[in-house]
Design brief:
The structure holds 2 protein chains of 2 kinds. Chain A is an all-alpha fold. Helices cover 68% and strands 0% of the residues of chain A. Chain A starts with 21 loop residues before the first helix and ends in an 8-residue tail after the last helix. Chain B folds into 2 domains: 239 residues, Rossmann fold, CATH 3.40.50; 243 residues, P-loop containing nucleotide triphosphate hydrolases (Rossmann fold, 3-Layer(aba) Sandwich). Chain B has 22 helices and 22 strands. The longest helix of chain B has 18 residues. Chain B is globular and about 70 Å long. Classes of the chains: A mainly alpha, B alpha/beta. Chains A and B meet through helix 8 and helix 12 of A and helix 15, helix 16, helix 17 and helix 18 of B.
Chain lengths: 314, 608
């Protein structure tokens, strides 16, 4: 999606092969900031738990092992759920599917939204109007309601859930990317390429897209978070992943009745979702800061070279 | 400076400004003196630290910087040792600062009258006295207070008027020291002239010690009797303007002067490559050593002292001065060069013929009845003030501006307004170099990728099978090192960026090159190098070229024909010699008169 500009260094030179991968650079330097460290640490923690969990869970997640709603004991560290299944096992097992689906939904949303946003910004005129009004119509529904609508009409298939959540992201992403792309499309380097008669699709992918790195990275992180929230939300109201397979969102829903006898059945998945959301948000925030910092430094250098002065003494 | 120097009003001693974090020096050990009524010119290129120096002289350091050492004495009081409250009382009253961009320096939500009143009341002027002073200072800067200017908002004023309001604010409380930081950059020559005259007159009549910071050698030469040349945070040469600019001792000053174009002289400009070293990356020894043509071992060992030259009062910081070789080393006179060989007027059909072109922005007509012909192998300069429509004309030709009527013929074929319906051959043949190289190169592409792009487009070749040699040749012909091929634009200097932009157009062998103010965002030394490059390339490749500029002084260094534009119309056109030596239109004459002139600066410095 965020392919770097095709600028392969011509062969046969003595010049060193420098290919600075900028997005990688932004990610690694973001991860090195305190904010980024905290964010990526929390995120990784939850992701690791979800990935390794299924292999280390003490009991099969679907097996009834003890009395329903039993409080924690040494044998069942987080107690049992409403049907007497081990909460710890279900928590360990109920994450990977959710994360996988959330990532897929994020990708759908960001790819479609970015394409729509860039096209609207670059093509202008009636095509801009068509794309953005369509987006506005989808935007008129709250995101959760829109996903709910699709799922309730077409049934709760897993792929459909991913597509529905993904599509519900498109308007938000398209709006943000269009605003950023409008700015880029007016810059001289885009005109300089257009003037040579390059196809619009190539202008969009080769000139504009690589310069939207900052909003794209931030959007990706943000949409992943929203995907998780919406999917767990859908599960909570019974439209997402269906029982009996464990997932964090549905666990909160089914176990709220036994909140008084074994609160861990609700609190444990809730904490994991919260930690993941906070971690992701913190990390994308760090990315945004680093990316902005890079752009600002570029701007300052350009201004200094153009000889303009902005600061005035008090 | 002679024996009869009046006592100095402003004495700056050993002023040093450092970055607050790293401690790297931005300004190092600067000492200057300014007498009452005198204007000291501070000259330097971007990155030299001149703005930081100007601010430090009024006791201010920008965020991230701090004044680390030295003294700024105004009539004996050290501004730097004053408590902040005391300093604030002096600011506006005894010391004033005029920043570069008036539109960002004056409050857009206050009326002109209210703004000036604010300054006056803040410093103890009351009632009718303040009103009287307010009207007085406005008429002094050439704005009539009776014509309702007091109740006008800044956005309703032109750039020149805004700058005059800013100057009026600075002079309102009759300050003793005033620092002007490039107050005329961004104004066209006519406005620049009136603003400069105002400044000179007011400084003289109030006995103000003035410091005029600028990159424009000619303007400084015209305005000030004494100058200090700043490079890499240090004063590298100082003295009477006539001495420093007439007989420069430091190789940097010599180079700077050779790079200055003149409307009277036709000649090659000699540029200086490279950029001033950034703070914290300055070399040991002389900061200019990496760019200096006369560099020797001693230069890189230790910073030379600022020592007297053979002219009274002229000091320079160079090893050559110590050894007495300063005059011998550099050709002292500003660029004499060879005159350009005038190509024979071509009888061949013009490459580009514009007839009766009208252009519009919405319903507003910005160009009317433009006629223009560009013969093969000829450079036509289009000159005019900002807003004259010269860039719009270029954009119409290149197909970037589509709302026009009339006829533009390229090689005999009429061109369509937009680029979409122009055949590939036409798109390849007309190439366009943009004004600002900081905006015209995709920051996410390498130099090689940028130059390869038009080749791929026009040859239709797939990536991976491209002819690298072609790209490297284009870089070489634009005087760029092939080492830069993998760099990204943000790793290049302004001059290098513009060369990449030029290489990108040359690589597809155009017939017509349209250059839109290609040097206006570059320093004068780099401007000279780029203009010289374009001149050479135009000759070498037999290009037809349109060179758009607001700087009439540049024309002789590059063009054979010139078109003068004003208010969207062609005022005058003809060969360079005809138009510049025997201008027929009043407007051309005015434009030529208003250009700051170097020779006038030299001779006029003693009696101004």
């Amino acid at each position: 999606m965020t392919t770097l500009p095709p600028g392969p260094p011509p062969r046969g030179t003595t010049a060193p092969r420098v290919r600075r991968r900028e997005w990688l650079h932004i990610l690694t330097s973001a991860a090195r900031t305190p904010r980024g460290m905290a964010g990526s640490g929390l995120t990784l923690l939850v992701v690791l738990l979800a990935v390794i969990g299924p292999f280390v869970s003490p009991y099969p997640p679907l097996q009834f092992v003890t009395t329903p709603g039993a409080p924690p004991t040494s044998k069942f560290p987080l107690g049992s759920d409403i049907l007497g299944r081990d909460v710890l096992s279900r928590v360990l097992d109920g994450g990977w599917q959710l994360l996988l689906m959330a990532t897929a939904a994020m990708l759908i949303g960001v790819v479609l939204g970015t394409a729509a946003g860039i096209a609207a910004a670059q093509l202008r005129g009636w095509r801009d109007g068509l794309i953005m009004r369509t987006v506005d119509v989808i935007l008129a529904f709250p995101q959760l309601v829109f996903a709910l609508l699709l799922v309730s009409i077409l049934g709760p298939a897993r792929w459909l859930l991913v597509v529905a959540v993904g599509i519900s992201h498109v308007p938000q992403v398209a709006r943000v990317i269009r605003a950023a792309a409008l700015d880029v499309s007016e810059r001289d380097f885009v005109k300089a390429v257009e003037i040579t008669g390059v196809r619009q699709s190539k202008v969009m992918s080769g000139e504009i897209l690589p310069n939207l790195l900052t909003p794209l990275t931030v959007e990706a992180g943000l949409r992943l978070t929203y995907s998780i929230v919406i999917m767990t939300g859908l599960s909570f109201i019974g439209f997402g992943l269906q029982p009996p397979a464990p997932n964090w969102g549905y666990m909160i829903n089914e176990n709220r009745i036994i909140l008084t006898t074994n609160p861990w059945a609700v609190v444990a998945p809730a904490i994991l979702i919260a930690v993941l959301t906070v971690g992701l948000n913190t990390f994308t925030d760090a990315i945004a800061r680093v990316a902005l910092g890079i752009e600002r430094a570029e701007m300052v250098i350009a201004e200094a070279a153009a000889g303009s002065v902005t600061e005035i003494p008090a | 400076m002679t024996v009869a120097t009046p006592p100095s009003r402003l004495v700056v001693e050993g002023l040093t400004v450092t970055a607050a974090g790293s401690g790297a020096a931005v300004i190092e050990d600067v000492s200057v003196e300014v007498a009452a009524g005198e204007v000291l010119g501070v000259v330097g290129e971007s990155g030299s630290g001149k703005t930081t120096l100007g601010l430090a002289m009024v006791g201010h350091a920008r965020r991230g910087l701090k004044i680390a050492a030295g003294a700024v004495r105004l009539d004996g009081t050290d501004l730097l040792s004053l408590p902040p409250a005391e300093l604030r009382r002096l600011r506006g009253a005894a010391i004033a600062y005029v920043p570069q961009d008036p539109s960002s320096a004056i409050n857009p939500s206050l009326r002109v009258g209210g703004m000036l009143k604010e300054v006056l009341t803040a410093h103890g002027w009351q009632g009718p006295e303040a009103d009287a002073r307010l009207e007085e200072v406005l008429s002094e800067v050439g704005l009539d207070p009776r014509q309702g200017i007091l109740s006008v908002y800044p956005h309703q004023l032109s750039g020149g008027q805004q700058q005059r309001v800013a100057i009026a604010m600075a002079f309102a409380c009759r300050p003793r020291l005033i620092v002007l930081d490039e107050p005329t950059t961004g104004l066209d020559v006519t406005t620049q002239r009136t603003v400069l005259e105002t400044v000179a007159r007011m400084c003289a009549s109030y006995g103000v010690a003035a410091v005029y910071v600028s990159h424009d050698v000619v303007v400084v030469g015209e305005l000030s009797k004494r100058v200090a040349v700043v490079y890499s945070g240090r004063v590298i040469e100082t003295g009477a303007t006539a001495d420093v600019f007439g007989a420069p001792a430091h190789p940097y000053t010599q180079g700077l002067l050779r790079a200055v174009p003149s409307p009277e002289r036709s000649g090659r400009l000699v540029g200086m490559e490279g950029v001033p070293p950034r703070p914290g990356q300055r070399p040991a020894g002389c900061g200019f050593a990496p760019r200096c043509p006369f560099v020797m071992q001693r230069c890189t060992a230790a910073m030379p002292e600022l020592i007297p030259t053979d002219r009274a009062g002229q000091l320079a910081r160079c090893v050559l001065v110590e050894t007495g070789q300063a005059r011998a080393a550099g050709a002292v006179a500003p660029a004499s060069g060879q005159d350009l060989a005038e190509p024979a007027p071509s009888a061949a059909a013009p490459v580009l013929q514009v007839t009766g072109l009208d252009a519009f922005y919405g319903h507003r007509q910005v160009l009317s009845g433009i006629d223009l012909a560009v013969p093969p192998n000829t450079c036509v300069a289009i000159v005019g003030e900002s807003g004259s429509g010269k860039t719009t004309l270029a954009r119409c030709i290149a197909g970037l501006h589509t709302n026009w009527t009339g006829q533009v013929r390229y090689g005999g074929q009429p061109l369509t307004p937009g680029i979409r319906r122009r055949p590939k051959e036409v798109l390849r043949g007309i190439q366009y170099v943009f004004q600002n190289p900081y905006a015209s190169l995709n920051p996410r592409r390498t130099v090689g990728g940028l130059v390869a792009q038009p080749v791929d487009t026009f040859a239709g070749r797939r990536r991976g099978r491209r002819d690298d040699q072609e790209i490297l040749d284009a870089l070489r012909s634009a005087a760029l090192s092939v080492e830069l091929v993998n760099r990204y634009p943000d790793q290049l200097s302004g001059g290098e960026r513009q060369r990449v932009a030029i290489a990108r157009t040359l690589v597809v062998s155009p017939t017509l090159l349209v250059c839109d103010e290609v040097t206006s965002s570059l320093d004068v030394s780099v401007q000279a190098a780029v203009v010289e490059l374009l001149r050479r390339l135009q000759r070498q490749h037999g290009l037809a070229m349109i060179f758009i500029t607001h700087n009439i002084a540049l024309i002789r260094s590059i063009a054979q024909q010139v078109v003068v534009m004003h208010d969207g119309q062609v005022v005058e056109s003809g060969t360079v010699a005809d138009v510049l030596d025997r201008p027929r239109a009043d407007y051309t004459r005015r434009l030529l008169d208003d250009v700051p002139k170097f020779s006038a600066a030299m001779t006029g410095a003693s009696d101004a």
